[in-house]
Write a structure and sequence with these properties.
Blueprint (H helix, E strand, L loop, with lengths): L5 E3 H8 L3 H9 L6 E2 L5 E4 L1 H14 L4 H9 L9 H35 L28
Antiparallel strand pairs: 1-3, 2-3
Length: about 140
């Protein structure tokens, strides 16, 4: 490995806009891996810039750190991921987003209908909870979950 291909944590922070503590946090969570110098200083691959950018983007999409880690584990270690590597991850995330979008649209539509009727009561609502059947499912918002 060429030493010029490695970045200090400060360099990586400047390139990604993250703080060193955030980078250490992601490292502690197993989302990226540093190499250690003889003096135990962290060094990161240039490809970690893209990994951290990916983390920031998909967190905004609502993916958990566990989900992100699963996707990152599918990437090769020690080499820059190819466009095909990223495309495979993109496909998996797209499917998950499509499901989430459908759930959110359904929730939005049901919420509009519930608020629109004016009763604002799931206990007495004739549309979404006739005869209070939702109570059989236990406490909490059963219908709009």
């Amino acid at each position: 490995m060429n030493p010029n291909d490695l970045l200090t944590i400060g360099d990586l922070a400047r390139r990604t806009g993250l703080t060193p503590s955030a980078i250490r946090f992601y490292e502690d969570k197993g989302l990226l891996q540093s190499h250690r110098t003889g003096g135990n200083q962290r060094r990161f691959l240039r490809s970690d810039i893209r990994r951290l950018s990916f983390i920031l983007i998909v967190q905004k999409l609502g993916l958990s750190l566990e989900e992100i880690g699963g996707h990152l584990r599918s990437l090769p270690q020690g080499r820059t991921p190819s466009s095909f590597d990223w495309w495979k991850i993109s496909e998996a995330i797209r499917e998950s987003l499509d499901r989430r979008i459908a759930q959110l649209q359904s929730l939005r539509d049901n919420l509009d209908g519930c608020i629109g009727c004016g009763c604002l009561s799931l206990k007495t609502c004739k549309l979404y909870n006739p005869d209070d059947v939702a109570a059989e499912g236990g406490p909490g918002p059963r219908v709009l979950r």
